[in-house]
Amino acid sequence: MYEKVNGEINTSSVHVVDLRSDTISKPTPEMREAMATAVVGDDVFGEDPTVAELERRSAELLGKEDAVFVASGTMANLIAIMVHCNQRGSEIISGDNGHTFRFEQGGPAQIAGVQASLIRNNNDGTFSLDELRDRIRKNPDCHEPYTSLVIIENTHNMCGGKVLPLDWIEKVKYISKEYNIPVHMDGARVMNAAVYLKVPVERVVRDVDTVCFCLSKGLGAPIGSILAGSKTFVDKARRTRKVLGGGWRQAGIIAAAGLVALDNMIDRLQEDHDHILQIAKGISAMKSKTFLVDLSGVQTNILMMYLDKSRITAKEVQKRLASVFETDEVKVCVKTSSRDAGVIRFVTYWEISDEDVEAAVKKIQLVIKEIDNKNY
User: Fold this and answer.
1) Cα 271–Cα 277–Cα 279 angle in degrees, nearest 5
2) Separation CA 17–CA 359 (nearest Å)
3) Is the peptide bond before 11 cis (omega within 30 degrees of 0)?
4) Distance CA 307, CA 262 (A)
């Protein structure tokens, strides 16, 4: 996913369109101004008013009792797991394609001492509710771990930015509550889900006990995530944050950017969704036998392009997309990411303009045509 694939550029005046991730987004001018003038204090002492305001506003937005500002989504998820799984021999249940399992360095096992029971993710980011019920350990004996937490991801990154259906989340809650098991939502891009569904984010997270979201992806802030839940949970989360080295000092400088994000960057996420759909339509219009997108499944700001890896690998395509030669009709470098040899991921964010999208589509179509002509 995070491997750099550099192209070859043999010409000047190259237009670069970086679609690797929304984590690449830079703070807006308004954020930079707010950061420069932020009122700050020592947050470990609870004396940074800008951090306190960000946490208050975030909790209110999510409909939760309290919230805590942390360094990253990975830290937020790990803290949630450590607080919920508060006895040795704990087990979490999650999807097999979830970020907490695939891309957080095995933190639950490595640091929290928690093992994972995995359910195969469906293409829409959900997993089988029947299997969820089966995986829950009822009255475990001395040979078994304790089922302590269920984790869901919304939007679902590796399923192409899919938004979890609200009724499915509600059913996860009912099953989990039968056995007094809390539900945590890895909501790194949950604001995208709310925009797609056209409902308040409070409704999206209504049926989970705890939730985190990133300020540093589509919302454009440079650093930070919010972890929210009950007052009791957040008190424990704040303590756990400290032992993980996450105690902020004058963190209001970056919290100020988060406040701008809450004010200005949520509703505009629809632009990112529109942009990724334009790219998907451009790929689909080629009617390629080597490259495929699920046009009907494009929902938010992430697009997966699937390819026939018996003909070409993702890395080869990525390198060609990022390369610009004198003979190219389109002088555009398109940067992308990949999860495996058969998939390329495109992600849009606030700095990607209409002109960038138009240029990217032209370059992607040029490369598709070039590769299809070689293979057929």
Assistant:
1) 110
2) 8
3) no
4) 37
C-alpha 170/C-alpha 120 separation (Å) is 19
How do beta strands 66-70 and 90-95 pair? unpaired
Burial class of residue 12 in the structure, from the number of CB atoms within 10 Å of its CB (0-12 exposed, 13-18 middle, 19+ buried): exposed
Amino acid at 286: M
Quick one: 328 exposed, middle or buried, by C-beta within 10 A (0-12, 13-18, 19+)?
middle
Structure token pair of residue 141: 């004996």
Task: Go through the chain and tell me how many residues it has.
Answer: 376
pLDDT tens per residue, range 152-180: 999 999 999 999 999 999 999 999 999 99
Measure CA of the first residue to CA of the last residue in the chain; give whole Å.
29
Q: Residues near 156 by Cβ (< 8 Å), separated by ≥ 6?
A: 95, 97, 98, 121, 124, 125, 162, 164
- The one-letter amino acid at 346: F
Say how far apart CA 167 and CA 225 lie, in whole Å.
Answer: 26
* Closest-CA residue to 218 (of 185, 252, 261): 261
Tens of pLDDT along 192-234? Answer: 999 999 999 999 999 999 999 999 999 999 999 999 999 999 9
Q: Measured between alpha carbons, how far is 254 from 257 in angstroms, rounded to an integer?
A: 5
Q: Tell me how many degrees the CA angle 193-258-250 measures, rounded to the nearest 5.
A: 145
